[in-house]
Design goal:
Order of helices and strands: EHHEEEE
Helix content: 25-40%
Family: Belongs to the RelE toxin family. YafQ subfamily.
Keywords: Hydrolase, Toxin-antitoxin system
GO molecular function: hydrolase activity; RNA endonuclease activity
Radius of gyration: 12 Å
Largest sheet: 5 strands, mixed
Low-confidence stretches: none
Number of strands: 5
CATH architecture: 2-Layer Sandwich
InterPro entries: RelE/ParE_toxin, RelE/ParE_toxin_dom_sf, Toxin_YafQ-like
Structural class: alpha+beta
EC number: 3.1.-.-
CATH superfamily: RelE-like
Distance between the termini: 16 Å
Length: 78
């Protein structure tokens, strides 16, 4: 299982989502799959980013809600 680390920006954005009524079950499901290195369902449209963020990946929790992350051998960083 990968170690999960979060940035201050992620923590702040998550706090805003919770305040606005976002159900965290979806986030926990996706993060759990990523941390245990299980593939995500196609509906999440997981893909690598390009350009300056080429080391990062992105998946779509909802059509207007994206999760950007960096995955290496031991760590999952949001």
């Amino acid at each position: 299982m990968l170690t999960i680390e979060t940035s201050k920006k992620f923590d702040k954005d998550l706090k805003i989502l919770v305040k606005n009524g976002f159900d965290l079950k979806l986030l926990y499901k996706v993060v759990g799959n990523l941390a245990t290195e299980q593939p995500l369902e196609p509906k999440y449209k997981d893909h690598p980013l390009k350009g300056a963020l080429k080391d990062f990946r992105e998946c779509h929790l909802k059509p207007d809600l994206l999760l950007v992350y960096l995955k290496n051998k031991k760590t999952l960083f949001f």
